[in-house]
Amino acid sequence: YVPPQARRAQETLDDKKREELGRLKKMVNGLINRLSEPNLSSISGQMEELYMANSRKDMNDTLTEILMNACVTAVAMPTRLVMEHVLLVSILHHNVGIEVGAHFLEAVVKKFDELCKSDAEGKECENLLALIAHLYNFHVVHCLLIFDILKKLVSTFTEKEIELILFLLKNVGFSLRKDDALALKELITEAQRKASTAEKKFQDQTRVRFMLETMLALRNNDMRKIPGYDPEPVERLRKLQRTLVRSSGSGRDTELRVSLESLLSADQVGRWWIVGSSWSGAPMISDTNSKTQQKLHLGKVSSKIMELARKQRMNTDIRRSIFCVLMTSEDFMDAFEKLLK
Fold first, then answer.
1. Banded model confidence at residue 296, pLDDT cuts 50, 70, 90
2. What's the number of domains the chain is made of?
3. Fewest beta carbons less than 10 Å away: which of 59, 163, 219, 272?
């Protein structure tokens, strides 16, 4: 039971909060609407001031909602506009804190996953993929996530997915090659294998052939073979980013090394990539997992040692593990390494 007096106080508090959020939304919206390359410096400065004056959660929610409304539409968004919006996020990510980029990234990836499963006719998927690609271009997220998305698209391999693979490779292909050439090579091999098995499935073979040609051009580092590829706008904005990001927060150390699976299951297993993020829920690793891991570890030890462990009454998995490590180690350093594992 809540007494009327307390109820009234709560209602006025809610109204106050709603009014504040409405005001904040108007201010952020006004700044985002005016966003362009020349005034990025002043707008990012004003956004930082808003972050200092308001709660981070309110700011993150408001900014993410406004950017998603601006960039995720049924028609293809102009590349430059998407890049400017993402650049603003990246500057705030480096200057204010990594939770800004992390919050936006999680919202974008979840929406992308949801739209991929539904058969949406519009260009929303491409727009979301462009946001993710530019978050990688401006060092908010590590290439690990991009490879996860590409692997997922290659494993499905329908015409819509081929379209998305081409779109992503055109935007970030050469950066991926620079960051992790081996993973890209494996991905290309997998795509070629899929293409050869799925040849009969497609009526229009040209699309698949074009994708494979693009992949080969990437592997051979041949930029001329990719139509419409122009690295100049990204490079120009990267230079601008370097001038606007304060040196302490710049560099690769603020990149989020997070996988697709971690982002999609963030509500169940917590957000380990945000320092101090609160989380309540089921334990991150279930007991069954840890038991199987221990048993697997013990499986490598000879039966003679296991017999000794049994004689010494090592009656739990953990005791047996420690006993086996001590008995089979070559020296104290080896034992230390194994015990840590």
1. very low
2. 2
3. 272
